[in-house]
Amino acid sequence: MSSMWLLLFLYCLKMRVLFFGDIVGEQAVDQLVTDIPRWRQEHSIDLVIANMENAIVSHPEDLWGGFGISLDVITRLTDAGVDVLTGGNHSWDAPNTDAVMAHPKIVRPGNVTNDLPGRGHITLEVSGELVTVVNLIGDTAAGKRYHTQRPFDYFQAQTFSENSLIIIDYHANTPIEKWSLARVLDGQVMAIMGTHTHEPTLNLYRLPQKTFFVTDVGMNGPTGGVLGMGNRYFLSKENQPDAPVDFDLAPGPLQLGAVIFDNQSGEIVRLCDRNWPGDLL
């Protein structure tokens, strides 16, 4: 869709989206399952998207490959009102990957070129309109585990449904990666939501051609540690880098990392709630 037609389409269409950054651990899942139905109603939400690649700890002995997704968590979150679940570098950590990636509401980074299960985007009908959710990953998040196609090249090679609003979860480490893609795709997509760092960025943007953009939506997970993980692992590695040590999740209150954007009003805001006392913003 051209920039001009996207602008006209956005002004005519009502769409309020609630987007959650990385969900870290099952305590966060439990609280989200409780709160999402209320948030959908209170904020008149049409579509809920959540990044859930860190939702479970699958291998506590391996911090860098020990998270993932389970079918039970997928069921609980979708029953609570999540419409699409996105991923990242931990999408394939858990042992039941084939079954998880076959779920119709799951996407994973499409520009990962390894022979791995899953789809990079899905299209669904929301309030009578088509919305396409695309999952991309940057080299900084893929690291040495995965081979990737350039995110823009992957995006350009896809055939999306005509008149579909496109929302991208871009899973990457650096603001420059995310800003670069946002400038290139401004006016071609409804929103680009940055995930992966677990650190919510202060600024929320609507770019000149009306694309919503956040460099990182932030974490939904426990505070009091390092990006949702307990301090013990990191302290041990500082003192004895080669010693094996399991990791655990942080012990503190939950922090909320979510934004709401509305294409009719042009508003983008952070979601805050008193039930999440670890919220930093």
Total domains, how many?
1
What's the total count of β strands? Answer: 13
Uncertain spans, ≥5 residues at pLDDT below 50? none
Main β-sheet, in a few words?
6 strands, mixed
- State the separation between the terminal residues, measured CA to CA: 35 Å
Strand order in the largest sheet: 4-5-6-7-9-8
Tell me the name of the CATH class: Alpha Beta
The CATH superfamily is Metallo-dependent phosphatases
* Strand and helix order: HEHEHEHEEHHEHEEEEHEEE
Q: Give the C-alpha Rg.
A: 18 Å
Using the coordinates shown, work out and report the CATH topology.
Purple Acid Phosphatase, chain A, domain 2
How would you state the average pLDDT, rounded? 93
> What percent of residues adopt helix (DSSP H or I)?
25-40%
Strand coverage percent: 15-25%
CATH architecture: 4-Layer Sandwich
DSSP helix count?
Answer: 8
Find the structural class using helix and strand composition: alpha/beta
Q: Given the C-alpha coordinates, what overall shape results?
A: globular
